[in-house]
Known about the structure:
alpha+beta
Amino acid sequence: MKTFKLACLLLCPAFLHASTLSEALAKSAxxxxxxxxxxxxxxxxxxxxxxxxxxxERLALIDYSRPSVERRFWIFDLVARKLLLSDYVAHGRxxxxxxxxxxxxVEGSLQSSLGLFKASExxxxxxxxxxxxxxLEPGVNDQARARAIVLHGAQYVDPKLGVTQxxxxxxxxxxxxxxxxxxxxxNVLQGGQMLYVYYPDRQSALLxxxxxxxx
Length: 215
């Protein structure tokens, strides 16, 4: 066992870094699902490897297995290994009521998409400062830009609505956040940071990075 540990210290630095980073992020966000964090890191690292791009410095995670009335959106600083934000996020009205259960990559479905996204350029639109998203998984979320799936603020992302209607408001498929944090979210993620949308019974192909069928 000691020989194995010594060999791993010498030969497996990438594995050790990923494991330690995952644990550090989970510790910084104890209300988040550690498995979702680990998958988000794996997918992000795989995409970086395949794209040949600079590693992301920040990573956002949405856990759509949780109800809309709970905080289910986190942003992590991967360099400082700490949590930057924990807040609410809407799902598409076609995905469900308080719980999201249906997901799509199809225009007009009004459903959210799963998987890994690259946060691209910011712009000012109908919802104020917003952030365009590029889906990195063919057949899963790669129509995000064509569907105008963007990250934006919206008044209906209000936890007080959970008291009166049992859920917060829903979007047309966009991961909408509270207006109070929208500018912060856009500015922190713009320019190539990553967003991973998790659901427990859907496995991202980017979790199988070394297999031929991964994106």
